[in-house]
Amino acid sequence: MKVETSAALFALLSVASARPDAVRLFRKTHTPIGASAKFRREVPQEHSHEKFLRGVGQALNLNNVDQVQDPVFALLGNKAAAQGAGQVQDLDCLQQRVADQAFTNAKAANDVEGMTNALIFRALERNTGSVGLASVLCTETAKNPEIAAIQQHQDPASEGAAELNKQITLDLAVQLASIGADPQLALQSGTFAPGQAGDQTGAGNTCDDADDAEGCIFTQNLLVEDATAEEIDAAVAAAGGNANAGNGNADDTADDAEDDGCEADDGSADDTANDDAGNAADDAEDDECEADNGSADDASNDDANNNNNAGGNANNGADNSNNGGTATTGVNVNAFTGSVGSAPVPVISSTADKPFSVNGAEFLNQGAAIQRACDVQKNACANAANGGDKTISVADCDAQQQQCVAQNGKKRRQSVDTGDCGSPAISFGQQQDRGSEEAFAPVNSADFNHGSALKPAVITDFICSQLKSKCGASEATVAQCEEGAQAADSLEGQAAADAFNAALGV
């Protein structure tokens, strides 16, 4: 790590306290300047895990009670952090306060990905004054016990850092498992290789790129993992798989997120992230759908698609997928046959309470299971591409994932029997009967004549009842409609409409 001297950076941060839009300028333009320092700190690394920084920012902004200008300030030293800390007085606790509020907001929205980002953000290393200097710990107690169970990584050159950072990663894994996320994501909270302790020139192994959406520590292969996948599994198993620091509602939250957060989508969310680092960002999204039974086996099914041994992981991921299909009684309903970088992942349909399963993860909705299978295949493919397979690229994997979703959607559309009625699709936006206010309404008002509504359930329940009574639709179509209605009911806006329409293949 290097010592940076930057009067220009200090000026930018000072402006940011008066102008929130200046934070965006800071995130885009700050670079090391010359030696006329106003203050000294480590080489900038606050953007090294950029995907988690952006993710926690989205969750924080749902209700930013402390008016923190940007989560990036929480990863700076106190002098710089003060310029964007909002109402937070204890700067040693700014990182925890940001993570805690982001987690609270995401939990209220049943957003497992948002909670995941908050947990990982809490564990990220914070900048200090020199190589080997540990950051000060927060002495406040977080509102959320999941956040309270975690502290930030310390400079890897500081005393005892290897053992401490490993424990932080294992603690983080347990909390990730407690909310239904993939505990292996804890490995991505790790930091860089250690520099020379006390080196005021700061020659280190850091990076800092606000424009790298994935995070330069991942795209430049600078991440040093603190534990092995097996150690993660063991820690989660020892904690009971669903352990947290005492939140009695955590299991319910995880279950709600599993059932409600597993709606089918069109893969568009994947397009917004940089997938070049093995699509690790997608894993957090995908694992909203994992079975919340706390077993290490479930976690390890996904591990092969999300660790550094990328070259061999594509095959492992494919093998796990095939084993998942043969070991489960039922029928594979995944219609996709493409095999670029990885074999297609079976989606097993059975008579269980949650009738669809993918590598041991169980789903109520077929659309959600299909989405998961397509994403697992994509991650295995991307690992192969990043692991040195010159015959494929991550772009090929993205394209295949979209083909997988589309082909299964086409199959479902072909199987939809709406009886005497046409399309049961719904829309979200400005409706004729509601002026400029956005609301839900049937697209096909001729067959489904109903005024607009602010809640999706009003429209989806009506359509499902009409399919059954008026239209004479098949039982399978009515069941798909009810699946879509359930998925939409936990969402808002366009996401709710998309989930309902995807379930029916319209």
TrEMBL record:
<feature type="compositionally biased region" description="Low complexity">
    <location>
        <begin position="292"/>
        <end position="326"/>
    </location>
</feature>
<dbReference type="InterPro" id="IPR053216">
    <property type="entry name" value="Appressorial_penetr-assoc"/>
</dbReference>
<feature type="region of interest" description="Disordered">
    <location>
        <begin position="408"/>
        <end position="436"/>
    </location>
</feature>
<feature type="region of interest" description="Disordered">
    <location>
        <begin position="240"/>
        <end position="326"/>
    </location>
</feature>
<keyword id="KW-0732">Signal</keyword>
<feature type="compositionally biased region" description="Low complexity">
    <location>
        <begin position="240"/>
        <end position="251"/>
    </location>
</feature>
<feature type="compositionally biased region" description="Acidic residues">
    <location>
        <begin position="252"/>
        <end position="274"/>
    </location>
</feature>
<feature type="compositionally biased region" description="Acidic residues">
    <location>
        <begin position="282"/>
        <end position="291"/>
    </location>
</feature>
<feature type="signal peptide">
    <location>
        <begin position="1"/>
        <end position="18"/>
    </location>
</feature>
<protein>
    <submittedName>
        <fullName>Uncharacterized protein</fullName>
    </submittedName>
</protein>
